[in-house]
């Protein structure tokens, strides 16, 4: 098992695509762990980038890496309109260098104040599962998981609830700048 950094330690979360290509890279801070998994945070000013796109956070957010390695949750602080953003994934884990990494699998579950809860990027999922040759077992698992997560987010089940988000946003806010 990889040793975890101390809470407050900066880490880089690296996403890749199924073919190994670079995807999002997030500068974030390790916050700690609870019964749901390991938590990270981004403060306003923290950056994320991928080929062709850069993003600087304007609101704090917390991210959860659950032990299953099949998804990563991002919960944004108000007044950000997107409350929940779940990246369905494969092989999300700590790498040998002690930083989180995973394969982005296109499908996302989103809870947005303007639109509600839905599964996003089905078109990209359909395109990439053919282009990258996703194994049938992976496709079946993640299709079902997307629906399960959509239902859990709609029901505000932990860790998709306000109390869990508030707790970890408070941990992030309490860390020294």
Automatic annotation (TrEMBL):
Signal peptide location: none
Alphabetical list of InterPro entries matching this protein: DUF402, FomD-like_sf
Annotated DUF402 domain residues: 50-157
The protein, known as: DUF402 domain-containing protein
Cited Gene3D superfamilies: FomD-like
Domain of life: Bacteria
Species assigned in the record: Microbacterium oleivorans
């Amino acid at each position: 098992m990889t040793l975890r950094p101390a809470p407050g330690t900066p880490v880089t979360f690296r996403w890749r695509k199924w073919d190994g290509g670079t995807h999002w890279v997030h500068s974030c801070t390790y916050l700690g762990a609870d019964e749901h998994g390991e938590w990270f945070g981004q403060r306003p000013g923290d950056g994320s980038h991928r080929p062709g796109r850069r993003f600087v956070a304007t609101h704090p957010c917390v991210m959860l890496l659950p032990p299953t390695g099949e998804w990563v949750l991002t919960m944004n602080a108000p007044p950000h309109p997107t409350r929940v953003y779940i990246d369905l994934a494969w092989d999300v884990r700590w790498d040998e260098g002690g930083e989180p990494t995973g394969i982005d699998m296109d499908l996302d579950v989103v809870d947005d104040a303007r639109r509600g809860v839905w599964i996003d990027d089905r078109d990209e999922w359909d395109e990439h599962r053919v282009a990258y040759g996703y194994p049938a077992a992976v496709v079946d698992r993640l299709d079902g998981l997307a629906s399960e997560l959509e239902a859990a987010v709609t029901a505000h089940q932990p860790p998709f609830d306000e109390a869990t988000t508030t707790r970890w946003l408070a941990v992030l806010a309490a860390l020294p700048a």
